[in-house]
Amino acid sequence: MTIVVIGKSGQLATDLAGARAQYSGDMVFFGRNDISFASLAEVDDVLHRFAAKGVINAAAYTSVDQAESNHEQASFLNEVIPERLAIACEKMKIPLIHVSTDQVFDGAKHGMYNENDTPNPLNVYGMTKLRGEERVGKYAEESLIVRVSWIFGPSARNFIHLCLDAARRQADFSVVCDQIGKPTYGPRLAEELLRLMALMISGEKNSPRGILHVAGPNIMSRYEQAEKILDTAATFGFPKASCAAVTTAEFGAAARRPLNAVLDTTKAEGTFGISFRDFSVDLRHTIGQIAGLQAVRTEMK
Ligand SMILES: NC(=O)c1ccc[n+]([C@@H]2O[C@H](COP(=O)([O-])OP(=O)(O)OC[C@H]3O[C@@H](n4cnc5c(N)ncnc54)[C@H](OP(=O)(O)O)[C@@H]3O)[C@@H](O)[C@H]2O)c1
What we know:
Strand order of the largest sheet: 2-1-3-4-5-10
Strand content: 15-25%
Structural class: alpha/beta
Shape: globular
Bound molecules: NADP nicotinamide-adenine-dinucleotide phosphate
Largest sheet: 6 strands, parallel
Helix content: 40-55%
């Protein structure tokens, strides 16, 4: 009962590897050096070779600002790869979970975005991710598109590491205060994705299909998130850095971003029992793990 995961050293792929005890079968991981996606035949070959029973696509071009000037690569990763996976999975009649993003929305809605809201991406990343969703929906009947947001955890470089780096350097930094979203704990997200995949493989009548929004329970701005990170880090002995609140316009990133990226997770919670702990609990756990690793590295020097 092997699941093929696309992505190996990325944040979510690492969390999926960490959660593998949740899945009773085998899992194999394909990073950029293991598969080129140059042809559909290559994807067919990989899935047949491992007798895959399901595929999770955790690979993507995720550099939101760089995507603005690297449309071609973003398009290959976020559109062509999902399309080839969808076609290959459909041929084998196996389920595909394709991971997507809150950035398919423009952020203009008053209130949370549910699965029926119309996407309208503001940037190249969001546009290519939306096209990837559309291709998956078109080619793979047995597919689930899981839109996620603001993934954090100890496994990879993310917003928490950025704040901790600033704290270590005792550097002042600016954080946008007008973008709101739901931080989502990667290790828990990975467990839930594996549970959803097991349901899909079991072929139960009510197994998930279509689009599903999965995110943590707390709504906050990036600035509020940064403050919580710095406060928690200080309790683990990190120096206290200060961050300044700026507007998105003042920050001036290359890519436009939705001001409201809040996903409505009612369906995930009500239909599939998906739940996350409070942000503060997983934040403490994350910073504790990062601080522990840092202490080990210092001792080994
Ligand atoms: N991080 C977030 O806050 C966030 C928010 C919303 C949605 N998402 C979505 O969540 C998913 C996972 O994101 P992430 O944060 O884990 O991304 P990430 O850390 O940037 O990892 C990207 C993954 O893509 C893989 N990849 C890159 N080029 C590849 C190629 N040519 N062939 C095969 N694989 C390739 C990488 O492979 P290697 O393992 O070889 O490096 C890596 O595993 C993505 O779909 C993303 O759009 C993420």
